[in-house]
UniProtKB/TrEMBL annotation:
PANTHER family: DEOXYHYPUSINE HYDROXYLASE (PTHR12697:SF5), PBS LYASE HEAT-LIKE PROTEIN (PTHR12697). The keyword Chloroplast does not apply. Gene3D superfamilies: Leucine-rich Repeat Variant (1.25.10.10). Keywords: Lyase, Plasmid. Transmembrane segments: none annotated. This is PBS lyase HEAT-like repeat. SMART domains: EZ_HEAT. It holds the Pfam family HEAT_2.
């Protein structure tokens, strides 16, 4: 007879293997064994059980995993958090009140992370409060919930934290979360983000402006950033966005980036010129056909072909 618990042996490695073997058993036998493993004395067994229970989703897994968010072992805590985030259990919403009062920021951020995929409006009020939490991780998960919900009522709150939070990581995530709105409030925050002290925030702002197809008056700000930013990671995002929203006035500035030392920038510049569709870029693109990087040459050729099709050549 198969034991329904992991306490049948004193060897933690054997108990861990029992958890792994349970994955091939019938649901009820497996669940009993794995649930037993969640309270095992060995952190390796608890970690394995926290991962394995995800293969048998249901309300039975919620409370034991929530308890493991306070486990003394970091690997166990992370395993429990990851499984909760993937379990897609609406019942988790009933635990928000209790677990968002926990003194541990890991616990608070984990419960928010777990309810985010549900896209349930019940989580919005907790996420709005979470924007004011002292923990960066909690604020980031709160932003994620509001971004998932795509409700225009939350744009103002997202825009505020995007430009005012003291953490660049939080500002970056908030800029990205604004990508579901082309409202004036969202666009204003994103333009402000182009001047952020953090290059990661500037890059995210530029990329998001491209996603929402921001109005053409943003082009001047993008061109200014393109000419002055020292980070190639920002430059490639700006070039992609300039092409996406077709900032035609930028052709000469963009063409100069075909000579940039970073090949990723030269590739993006070539692609951007193809999107802009201006014949005045043809000479610069033809020169790029001799670039030392084969990918730059390839994209330049595509861009030239695109221009030729646009003008019926």
């Amino acid at each position: 007879m198969i034991s329904r618990t992991t306490d049948s042996t004193s060897d933690p490695d054997a108990r861990r293997l029992l958890i792994i073997d349970a994955l091939d058993m019938d649901d009820m036998d497996a669940i009993d064994i794995i649930l037993s493993g969640l309270s095992d004395s060995s952190p390796k067994v608890r970690e394995e059980a926290a991962k394995a229970i995800g293969d048998f989703p249901g309300e039975h897994m919620i409370e034991p995993l929530l308890l493991l968010l306070d486990d003394p072992d970091e690997a166990v805590r992370k395993a429990a958090s990851n499984t909760l985030a993937d379990c897609n259990q609406v019942k988790l919403l009933d635990y928000l009140d209790e677990y968002l009062k926990d003194k541990s920021s890991f616990v608070r951020s984990s419960i928010l992370r777990a309810v985010k995929p549900l896209k349930n409006n019940r989580s919005a009020e907790y996420a709005l409060k979470g924007l004011l939490d002292s923990s960066e991780a909690v604020r980031i998960e709160s932003i994620g919930i509001l971004g998932y919900l795509k409700n225009p009522d939350y744009i103002s709150s997202l825009a505020t934290i995007a430009v005012s939070d003291n953490s660049p990581n939080v500002r970056r995530v908030a800029m990205g979360a604004l990508g579901y709105s082309s409202s004036e409030v969202a666009c204003s925050a994103l333009v402000d983000g182009l001047g952020d002290i953090s290059w990661q925030v500037r890059a995210e702002s530029a990329a998001t402006i491209g996603k929402i197809k921001a109005p053409s008056h943003v082009c001047n700000k993008l061109i200014e950033l393109l000419e002055n930013d020292e980070y190639w990671q920002v430059i490639v995002k700006v070039l992609a966005t300039i092409g996406a929203i077709r900032c035609i006035s930028s052709v000469n500035v963009v063409s100069a980036f075909l000579l940039h030392q970073e090949p990723n920038v030269r590739k993006e510049a070539a692609g951007c010129l193809g999107e802009l569709g201006d014949q005045s870029a043809l000479a610069a693109l033809e020169a790029a056909l001799h670039d030392r990087d084969p990918d730059v040459r390839k994209i330049a050729a595509f861009a030239i072909a695109k221009l030729d099709r646009s003008f019926g050549v």
